[in-house]
């Protein structure tokens, strides 16, 4: 029980007065529409309780908010399984639709579970298009559009250059033309913004948000990263000797990402002008104006802006009887047309005008051009993608597999937060794609891959696989291990592993020691020959002190693993230093790690693996140590509270590990109970 103070009492009165407002029109959608207002009121209530030092009331409200989010998610799934309720949701307009869009985006952002995200993404895309609105979290304020006019003009949008903070951005400003009214173009822009917002890949142009240009208040602006190297067409004109096959692979990976997204995404307008080149000279897919979910019906996906660009359209899109939407298969057809443009320098059937349509319908194929980098395998693959029957075309995932060189090197990056993992990737790839953290918050919250061509000119790619650390404040240890395990279950065989350690640390304890213990069991003995313990931050210590610490690491912590083939290296924050380390890995001798063998070959569950057992041992020993320390610490000691906090966290981690094998790693128990009850 807690005492009802005057402040809390007034807040309760406010809550009750709003209750009648929230329940004016009751249907299954109403609680979702009112959710944001309810949440804001409860959050204000929580803040005032904390100001009054009313910890019991604060804990109660905090629990209500957490449980409420689970109930809301459960209610949404009930609605989505009922056709009438789903249609009611999609018919919402104005403030009601805005509240729903904000809520749906919040749910998407706060879960990694594909089974939850996928149906909500379908719903938010449909609602955004129907209502001509988008979630308010997409709105940007600190954008400045540069004077001088647009740098590029498209069919229904002009591209301007601008600034957002210290970074250059591209700003797509909508431009209605002729029969395409402002309202219809706004619908298309909203849908593009919402769908683009859900995508995140190094092979997809990064989207920042939506900007309302004060000079044109009725025109939406979509803001994305500015690519100084321009389109792939412009880039190859300036650098004709560039590795074109590597760029084709980048486009294929971008297409694979879209098609493997859940739900699958159709690009709809793949062409050279919609492929941009990043500062690290990698290709990424851009312009999602004709993008659609593969699950959308023809009526849902019908676009006011057409169905693509003539030279890249598949034959089935020229159906004179009925309008056919772009599909995953038509994207693959367009991909082959982009390949032709990359290798030859101009589109297929260039200069034929509208006669292109007849050539495509008649399944005419161009003669193989005399392009130096276009080999037999590539030409064969392009012709397979041009198959007249859509079902005969390869999938994007098959295309990547066929293009994947067996000599490509895949390297996992492992280490605690702040050891320089992201900095290493940025230096090695000459980019800033990996976010670098300057506090104790883990930057790498999911598995992320960064690809870069090997500088030896061999044509091989090196893929750096960045992994989350065990200091992620948003996830328990078993969730981090599960993310890593899911990656290895995809049959990715590593050429090498870089384990990062700060040379500035005078002692190894806490999370670094835990990471090392799990790492040892994760690798197993056989994979250690492909491990390099990499020390960083040598510029922050003297050579003498650094060498002493390096020797201590070798003899006290790494010795056993080095006896089985693990090596050491120093990273001195230079491009040459990074690649001097990478060159020690041999692509011809990849080795599955122990975690992979246990889960894939032996069929064990995550909680049955050696790495999981190492985590349990670590936390069990720490709990015992802290309990003994607490017993020995005087009640009046200033350290007692700190020890108590550490013990509480250790018990939480230990309990989560022990229960995780029988509890879903994604949905907490209350959610499952709610689903069952409904």
Description:
The protein is globular. The strands form four sheets. Strands 1, 2, 3, 4, 5, 6 and 7 form a seven-stranded mixed β-sheet that branches. It has a six-stranded mixed β-sheet with strand order 13-14-12-15-16-17, sandwiched between helices. A two-stranded antiparallel sheet has the order 8-11. By secondary structure, the chain is an alpha/beta fold. 46% of the residues lie in helices and 12% in strands. It contains 25 helices and 17 strands. It folds into five domains: 6-133, no CATH class; 138-225, Phosphorylase Kinase, domain 1 (2-Layer Sandwich), CATH 3.30.200; 247-280 and 305-403, Transferase(Phosphotransferase) domain 1 (Transferase(Phosphotransferase), domain 1, Orthogonal Bundle), CATH 1.10.510; 409-604, P-loop containing nucleotide triphosphate hydrolases (Rossmann fold, 3-Layer(aba) Sandwich); 608-677. α10 runs antiparallel to α12, α10 runs antiparallel to α15 and α12 (328-344) packs antiparallel against α14 (376-385).
Overall pLDDT metric? 80
Q: Looking at the structure, what is the overall shape?
A: globular
The CATH architecture category of the largest domain equals 3-Layer(aba) Sandwich
Annotation, overall tally of beta strands? 17
Report the β-strand fraction as a percent range.
5-15%
